[in-house]
UniProtKB/TrEMBL annotation:
InterPro entries: C-N_Hydrolase, C-N_Hydrolase_sf. Residues 4-240 form the CN hydrolase domain. Pfam families: CN_hydrolase. Belongs to the carbon-nitrogen hydrolase superfamily. NIT1/NIT2 family. This is Apolipoprotein N-acyltransferase. PANTHER family: DEAMINATED GLUTATHIONE AMIDASE, NITRILASE-RELATED. It comes from the Bacteria.
Length: 264
């Protein structure tokens, strides 16, 4: 892995409008790639829009399916890696919020969101405990924490223990918890010596309000880029040597087994 540019897109999908949302996603991804991005993180459920309406199941497909095919096509054409989540109908008829890493070669990793927030358990079936989303990509090893999951240090720690150098955080994080978002995005990066790329929704969608503040954080916990409360994109250069330096400066992962007797 050598120096490369990563992007976080901040946008809010219109609930259940796949056509309009796809056009918005494609525009942002193409602009990010024009800015040099080789890794683009999109907000949670950006293709269908983040909604807790039971009608979400009506526009959700299988995996692979329309949503993943659309993202795979973009990744292949633009030679970039894309991370987000999509709504997927499971084999048992249930609905899952599935994290997705797509490289130019296709789907690299998937896994259903485990940490369901608020009314999400009424709509989504959680992924199995212990399952995590991590994959080798052309840019290094990438792990995924989905929105509320990033509030659990154990999720990011397991990704780091499994080799992740970059944690992607697709989210629809609530406006009332902006204080938590600001803290956890820096903390998860610092604790694990990882880059963290957090792409959030912003503004309002129906009765839901999101806090925006998409950000890219380096492995020392320093913000490299931040977008407050508007639609757009942020980019930053990621250097793998900074991961090594951060993990040497504060060797949390190296000493983990001495403290916990596990994970490390």
């Amino acid at each position: 892995m050598s120096l490369f540019t990563a992007a976080a897109v901040q946008t809010t999908g219109e609930p259940l409008d796949l056509t309009g949302n796809a056009a918005r996603i494609e525009r942002h991804v193409r602009c990010a790639v024009d800015d040099g991005a080789k890794l683009v993180v999109l907000p949670e459920l950006c293709h269908t829009g983040y909604t807790l309406s039971p009608r979400l199941s009506e526009v959700s497909g299988t995996l692979p399916g329309a949503s993943s095919d659309f993202l795979c096509g973009l990744a292949r054409e633009l030679d970039t890696t894309i991370v987000t989540t999509i709504a997927v109908l499971a084999d048992d008829g249930g609905l899952q919020n599935v994290g997705l890493i797509v490289s130019p070669d296709g789907i690299a990793a998937t896994g259903a969101k485990r940490g369901l927030w608020g009314g999400e358990p009424e709509l989504f079936t959680p992924g199995p405990p212990g399952e995590h989303i991590v994959a080798d990509t052309p840019l290094g090893r990438v792990g995924v924490a989905i929105c509320y999951e990033a509030g659990f240090p154990e999720v990011a720690r397991q990704l780091a223990v499994d080799g992740a150098e970059i944690i992607a955080l697709p989210a629809a994080f609530g406006a009332a918890r902006l204080h938590a978002w600001k803290l956890l995005t820096r903390s998860r990066a610092l604790e694990n010596g990882c880059y963290l790329i957090a792409a959030n929704s912003f503004g309002s969608s129906g009765s839901l309000a999101f806090c925006g503040h998409s950000t890219i954080v380096d492995p020392h916990g320093r913000r490299l880029a931040l977008l407050a409360d508007t639609e757009g994109r942020i980019v930053a250069d990621l250097d793998p040597s900074v991961v090594r330096d951060a993990r040497a400066a504060i060797p949390y992962l190296h000493d983990l087994h001495r403290v916990t007797g596990s994970l490390g």
